[in-house]
Amino acid sequence: MTDIKLGALCWNQYTQWPALLAAGVRADELGYDSLWTWDHVYPIVGDSHGPNFEGWLTITAWAQATKRVRIGLMVGANTFRNPALTAKMATTLDHISGGRAILGIGGAWFEEEHQDFGIDFGSGFPERLRWLGEALPIMRGMFDGTEPTAAGPHYKSQNTRNDPLPIQKHLPICIGGGGEQVTLKLVAKYGDMNNVGGGVEGVRHKESVLLQHCETVGRDPAEIERTTGVGTVFIRDNRAEAERLYKEAFDRNRIAVPWADQPVGTPEDVAEKIAPYLDLGYKHLIAGIPANYDEESMTRFATEVRALLAKG
User: Fold this and answer.
1) Would you list the DSSP string of 162-205?
2) Residue 70 forms beta bridges with which residues?
3) pLDDT category of residue 2 using cuts at 50, 70 and 90
4) 198 vs 217: CA distance, rounded Å
5) H or E stretch covering 230
């Protein structure tokens, strides 16, 4: 199986900038297909009262420091920025990276950071998804050079020019989230990529819903690249050692109770754990990599685990 893609989601919380920069460069050098971080201003895993680097500036620095890996946010918070400005930022990132940008976008969910930073959180998730529905055609139109005009209840634009256009003829939009009534319908209408989680059975269910929405809106589902987060990856020949490193990383991030059922163990353990996603058509597998960005785990995931998955 040669069309497998591996992504590295390097956590931008509880870390220092030199280590976060180096992790992105390492992912590029190891041959990862995509490189991501979160779009949050507070830590979202563990204690929110801790260090956290801003996402757009992180991926921009990575774009300058890397050569081949595709780069994006997993995923951008639509509430944080005007969509026309977001499209302009993604276009600039595409030029800085030489045509490697992905626009990751979602409705946003973390109320605490919105309150503390004075960002409008709306009345609830349904309203934020309506905002996302307004934002997506503005961003797509700017990427495509159609000078979009919008007069929605929340966002307005008028013949918005995007000069220069992205290097990529079709800069991809990755929509994150698995909401069955709205989010996955937006994926069917506007997404070039999706990102859903919830384990294999959760992804299986979301995939069935996405296919229904594609049929409803007349979209060929083959046009949408399927991506999923597989959890935090720690690899050693000794399973107990991998588990120890995993727990230490969660301690550094002030996570009281480590997540259960993670891809931790030998390369064979990890490959066996995540292989079922491939059967669902989710062939872009994104590993969570918390600080201190364990080099051996990153390396063995990109080499040994990739080879095991490719064997089928």
Assistant:
1) -SSPPSSTT--EEEE---TTTHHHHHHHH-SEEEE-SHHHHHHH
2) 34
3) low
4) 25
5) strand 225-232
The pLDDT of residue 1 is 57
Backbone φ and ψ for 235, nearest 5 degrees, come out as -125, 130
Per-residue pLDDT at 220? 98
Q: If pLDDT is split at 50, 70 and 90, which confidence band does 173 have?
A: very high
Tell me the domain boundaries of the chain. 5-311
Count of alpha carbons within 13 Å of 266, Cβ hemisphere only?
A: 7
Average pLDDT over residues 296-309: 98
Pairing relation of β-strands 76-77 and 103-106? Answer: parallel
Which is it for strands 150-151 and 156-157: parallel, antiparallel or unpaired? Answer: antiparallel
Report the C-alpha gap between 272 and 98 in whole angstroms.
35
Q: Is pTM, for the whole model, over 0.90?
A: yes
Q: Which CATH superfamily is domain 5-311 in?
A: Luciferase-like domain (3.20.20.30)
